[in-house]
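Hi F.,

I've been meaning to write this up properly since the lab meeting, where we talked about keeping a consistent format for the predictions we share between groups. The idea is simple: the sequence comes first, exactly as it goes in, then the structure tokens exactly as they come out, then a line or two of notes. No screenshots and no reformatting. I'm using this chain as the first example so we have something concrete to point to.
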Amino acid sequence: MQKPVLIFDLAETLIGGLFWMVEPAAKQLKVTEDAIREYFGGHHLVSFFQGDLTEVQYWNTVLNLSGFNSSPKILGDLARESFKKTVPGMVSLLSRLSKYKRVLLSDHAREWIDYIDQKHDFLQKLDQRFLSFEMKSTKHDHKTFDHVAQELGVRPENCLFIDDLTSNIEKAAQQGFRTIHFLNAAQLEKDLLHQGIIFDD
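Output, unedited:
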């Protein structure tokens, strides 16, 4: 049987993401965490991730919709504080999977990826990556998964997709991908072993 291609989400799976900035942003802006989630997400976030908005345009949309007393610079700095961090145990786990093709599939923005690449050398060891702003589509669209499998030259059932969001897991599964819902590194290692993945010694 062909070795599966291991496809990893980025934010909240390998490194910190927008969800990790909800609490500090709420404290700084003196609003509820629910308000942060409401205004940071939505169609404008999808447009940002698809490359249709710049970072400044995205943050200005958030500020215009929410009325938050802040600036694109302040919010961008808060986001980057989250992006600096790695998910505990994941850099080590990733390094022990060198027998497999390791791929990144991320809904992310060009400006943020430029920053993340400077902070996290381990991401350069991945064999291939698919970024929403380059593909002009996100994981909300099931065709994204079809595109990834086609570009990799493998059947969907030979793709093992790992993501922290159940909505993304469901979309991938609908397209025939094998999936693991990510919670933490220890759980992922157990689930990978259960899937027959062999770690480096």
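Notes:
The beta strands are 5-8, 102-106, 128-131, 159-163, 178-181.
The two ends are 22 Å apart (CA to CA).

If this format works for you, I'll send the rest the same way.

G.
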